[in-house]
């Protein structure tokens, strides 16, 4: 017999009854039933009930076992007594009568329990992550992640893509976040950067004639902590294709992402015909560039009904042509208690309040706004936005560029509070027609709004003749249930257009050559039209595992302060290390 096991703890079935077996694993829990010990033995594959009674030569040792001891157990597989089957376990019809136990690894007092899924302080969980990962739910999440990545690879290969690995030590790139810099020992005073994304390399692969690339790529960004991204590093399904239009990218990637979601959705419906929503429309209807389309609420511009009305606050605002009033319908929300609750929530979000109209029996409008604008205007608003008796509508006003994010939060809040958002499905969509540029108020200049390497719609001619803030890019996102899960674009592969695009954002030609020399040179020697995208592996796994915390689907994450509590990183370098790297530490004054 094998030194440690003849079977795993998830393998035994009724067909094994009568066999002498050997199992090794962790003591999940010990139950004493009137002197008979029931030990649940667990390994990666499952759990088996083991029984030790006072007649067993192993009984005295079994009494000393505690949770998370690693043990080997020998015994005979037998049928569980009638009425004691556990249908939740694949091994739930059998048990092992134990005749011999060997302790392979004793365990001290546990800093957190492994049995059960009770909440525990996150810092303790991350410091003792190796124990946390033994917990059933987290262990399952990690294995689901493994299977999702396998599914992605299989589907990408099925679409004719090839997996390439790009360098980790590279040059600094303006992807929109700070780089992690790595000092060079061989080249004093110079630094490598960890890739924020393999953007330039994957485009260079297209220049090199490889046609269809993908990679499960690690990406590194020295960003402040964010709720929807792990600090430090994350993984993405990185994709690039040659000789393609935007439609070709959509046609290649929709089946991959839809297929992954369908495979792991656990029966929840997944949208098959993805909607395509222009960026401006997404902001206008949903107050978000990553709208949760499970929520049926669509906002509408109702400015005309307030222009010159008796509600002077809105009427005065609308004297400025850039200002608007948006309505957020609230089906079933026509109670004073709910409207007051929403108003209090808005004040908690730093707003002066949230105006509302309620529609009573007979279709009459009620509330301060209705009283101020009168029954005709109230009825016109109702006709436009389609509310009915028992409904309400909330109103936000001002410059849409400044209030659209708040309006989106309010829409989400209404959807949640009134149970309008269908939590039992996955709603995927493309967001398209992103603006190429945006105005940077802080620096008082035009900046790239997203990816600087995207092709402008209209090409070089648009860059030369259009107001930059009106130019749209061949740029797109995939959204799901309120999360951006992928982003991409058709690339600007024309050298003159690339220089012009960067020039508008304040970069001179020489700076483009200095910073993107490899790609700029490659464009001079026959560059194919190309495009692609990158999908966030972590966010996709998070959605499919039904959690809202990325640390619940990652092996060894950092905490919100970007510290690895398990390994003690970041840590101070030794004097010898700093000397070899020709680096001196200049700490901030306390």
Notable traits:
8-stranded mixed sheet; 590 residues; 5-stranded mixed β-barrel; alpha+beta; single chain
Structural class: alpha+beta
Span between termini: 64 Å
- Beta-strand residue fraction: 15-25%
What is the helix tally?
18
Poorly predicted tracts of residues: none
Query: What multimeric state do the chains show?
Result: single chain
Q: Care to count the β-strands?
A: 22
The main β sheet shows up as: 8 strands, mixed
Radius of gyration: 30 Å
What is the average per-residue confidence, as pLDDT, rounded to a whole number? 94
Approximate shape: globular
Within the largest sheet, what's the order of strands?
Answer: 6-9-10-22-21-20-17-11
Helical fraction equals 25-40%
Provide an overview of this structure:
This protein is an alpha+beta fold. Helices cover 30% and strands 24% of the residues. The protein has 18 helices and 22 strands. The protein has helices at 59-62, 122-127, 129-132, 136-158, 199-207, 246-264, 279-286, 303-306, 312-317, 336-348, 368-385, 400-417, 459-465, 495-504, 509-515, 517-523, 537-545, 575-581, and strands at residues 20-33, 36-43, 46-52, 70-79, 94-105, 162-163, 181-183, 191-193, 212-221, 232-242, 275-278, 300-301, 324-330, 355-359, 365-366, 392-398, 428-432, 437-440, 445-448, 475-480, 483-490, 530-536. The strands form five sheets. It has an eight-stranded mixed β-sheet with strand order 6-9-10-22-21-20-17-11, sandwiched between helices. A five-stranded mixed barrel has the order 1-2-3-5-4. A hairpin with a 2-residue loop joins strand 1 (20-33) and strand 2 (36-43). Helix 4 (136-158) runs antiparallel to helix 6 (246-264). The longest helix has 23 residues, at 136-158. The protein starts with 19 loop residues before the first strand and ends in a 9-residue tail after the last helix.
């Amino acid at each position: 017999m094998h030194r440690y096991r003849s079977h795993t703890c998830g393998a035994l079935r009724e067909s094994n009854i009568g066999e002498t077996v050997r199992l090794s694993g962790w003591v999940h829990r010990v139950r004493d039933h009137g002197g008979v010990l029931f030990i649940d033995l667990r390994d990666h594959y499952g759990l088996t009930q083991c029984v030790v009674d006072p007649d067993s030569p192993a009984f005295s040792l079994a009494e000393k076992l505690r949770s998370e001891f690693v043990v080997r157990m020998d015994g005979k597989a037998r049928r569980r007594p009638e009425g004691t089957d556990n249908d939740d376990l694949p091994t739930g019809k059998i048990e092992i009568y134990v005749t011999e136990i060997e302790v392979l690894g004793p365990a001290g007092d546990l800093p957190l329990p492994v049995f059960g899924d009770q909440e525990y302080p996150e810092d303790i969980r991350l410091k003792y992550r190796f124990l946390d990962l033994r917990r059933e739910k987290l262990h399952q999440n990690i294995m689901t992640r493994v299977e999702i990545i396998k599914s992605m690879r299989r589907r990408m290969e099925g679409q004719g893509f090839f997996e390439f690995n790009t360098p980790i030590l590279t040059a600094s790139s303006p992807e929109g976040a700070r780089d992690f810099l790595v000092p060079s020992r061989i080249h004093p005073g110079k630094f490598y950067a960890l890739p924020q994304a393999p953007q330039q390399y994957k485009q260079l692969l297209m220049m090199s004639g490889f046609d269809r690339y993908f990679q499960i790529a690690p990406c590194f960004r020295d960003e402040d902590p964010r709720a929807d991204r792990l600090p430090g590093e994350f993984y993405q399904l990185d994709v690039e294709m040659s000789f393609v239009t935007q439609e070709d990218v959509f046609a290649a990637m929709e089946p991959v992402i839809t297929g992954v979601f369908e495979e792991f959705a656990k029966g929840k419906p997944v949208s098959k015909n993805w909607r395509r929503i222009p960026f401006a429309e997404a902001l206008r209807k949903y107050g978000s560039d990553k709208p949760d389309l499970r929520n049926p609420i669509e906002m509408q511009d109702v400015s005309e009904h307030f222009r010159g009305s008796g509600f002077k606050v809105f009427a005065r605002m609308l004297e400025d042509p850039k200002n608007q009033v948006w309505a957020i319908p609230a089906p079933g929300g026509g109670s004073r208690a709910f409207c007051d609750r929403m108003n209090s929530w808005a004040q908690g979000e730093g707003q002066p309040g949230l105006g509302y109209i309620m529609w009573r029996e007979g279709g009459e409008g009620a509330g301060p706004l209705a009283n101020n604008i009168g029954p005709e205007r109230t009825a016109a608003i109702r006709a436009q936005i389609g509310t009915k008796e028992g409904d309400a509508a909330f109103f936000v006003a001002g410059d849409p560029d400044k209030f659209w994010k708040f309006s989106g939060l309010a829409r989400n809040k209404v959807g949640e509070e009134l149970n309008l958002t269908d939590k039992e499905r996955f709603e995927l969509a493309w967001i398209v027609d992103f603006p190429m540029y945006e105005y940077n108020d802080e620096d008082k200049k035009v900046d790239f709004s997203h990816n600087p390497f995207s092709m402008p719609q209209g090409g070089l001619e648009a860059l030369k003749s259009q107001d930059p803030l009106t130019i749209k890019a061949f740029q797109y996102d995939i959204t799901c249930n309120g999360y951006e899960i992928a982003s991409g674009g058709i690339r600007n592969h024309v050298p003159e257009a690339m220089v012009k695009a960067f020039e508008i954002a304040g970069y001179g030609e020489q700076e483009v050559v200095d910073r993107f020399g490899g790609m700029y040179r490659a464009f001079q020697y026959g560059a194919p039209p190309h495009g692609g995208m990158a999908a966030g592996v972590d966010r996709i796994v998070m959605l499919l595992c039904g959690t809202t915390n990325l640390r619940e689907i990652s092996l060894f994450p950092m905490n919100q302060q970007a510290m690895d509590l398990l390994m003690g990183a970041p840590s101070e370098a030794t004097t010898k290390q700093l000397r070899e790297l020709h680096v001196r530490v200049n700490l901030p004054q306390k």
